[in-house]
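Deliverable D2.4 — example input (structure tokens):
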């Protein structure tokens, strides 16, 4: 059951990428407005669900400050970085930074990855490079790369913070509420024209309310039972799922290279999850 829920969560994360591409690349919304609407809709739905269940929201705690800031850092860095980075390179920087940050912070806490998990992570990340195969990396915009690295650090901290979250729904709702003011500043920082069509609003709401809000709440509910290294490694499957979603929903095509890379990613994840005797 846990494996199914983890797969469902990774699929929700991948759906965020697809919805973002449909809105931004389709000209239905600018990146900043999409991010702000995404967090706003997520906050509204999560708060409504918490109130319906009679779950109190607690805002004035150290964990809440860390979670909210980390979420805002991820959302803002992600949106601003993709103004100058292509999708493949951005995903590599993001998930590479997430891996390194979680591994490093876990090691400092005495819960670093074992040899098998490191081997699985290397195989999976190598497969991810094969799948995404970023072009023009030598001309990478330094600011865009730094912003995406900051987003990766933010998501890694957000993930680790969720391991001690007493209530997944209430914690996620409070995080979204506190992250909203910071994320609302993103459209002002993009230095580009604001553009949101009704289709863009619908895509942002779907991403915020369902695949982000509910997806992140599900992730928080799973994290206490997952080792930090495993939480980092399984997320390498997200770009692969996003590629498959692009084939099914956006009519994109894949070749043998992508298939081979996907096999490496999933094989590396499977190796890291395999129980040692």
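Example output (designed residues):
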């Amino acid at each position: 059951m846990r494996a199914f829920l983890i797969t469902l969560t990774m699929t929700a994360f991948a759906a965020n990428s697809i919805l973002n591409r449909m809105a931004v690349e389709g000209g239905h919304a600018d990146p900043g407005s999409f991010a702000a609407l995404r967090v706003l809709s997520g906050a509204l739905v999560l708060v409504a669900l918490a109130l319906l269940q009679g779950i109190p929201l607690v805002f004035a705690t150290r964990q809440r400050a860390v979670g909210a800031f980390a979420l805002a850092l991820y959302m803002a860095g992600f949106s601003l970085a993709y103004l100058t980075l292509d999708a493949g390179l951005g995903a590599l920087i993001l998930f590479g930074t997430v891996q390194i940050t979680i591994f490093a912070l876990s090691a400092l806490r005495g819960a670093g990855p074992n040899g098998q998990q490191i081997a699985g992570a290397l195989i999976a990340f190598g497969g991810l490079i094969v799948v995404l195969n970023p072009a023009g990396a030598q001309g990478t915009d330094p600011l865009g790369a730094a912003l995406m690295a900051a987003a990766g650090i933010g998501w890694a901290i957000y993930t680790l913070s969720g391991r001690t979250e007493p209530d997944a729904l209430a914690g996620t709702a409070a995080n979204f509420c506190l992250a909203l003011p910071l994320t609302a500043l993103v459209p002002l920082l993009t230095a580009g024209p604001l553009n949101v069509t009704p289709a863009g609003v619908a895509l942002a709401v779907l991403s915020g309310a369902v695949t982000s809000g509910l997806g992140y709440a599900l992730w928080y509910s799973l994290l206490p039972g997952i080792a930090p290294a495993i939480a980092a490694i399984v997320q390498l499957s997200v770009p692969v799922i996003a590629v498959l979603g692009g084939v099914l929903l956006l009519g994109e095509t894949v070749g043998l290279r992508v298939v081979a890379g996907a096999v490496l990613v999933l094989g590396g994840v499977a190796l890291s999850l395999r129980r040692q005797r």
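The mean pLDDT is 84.
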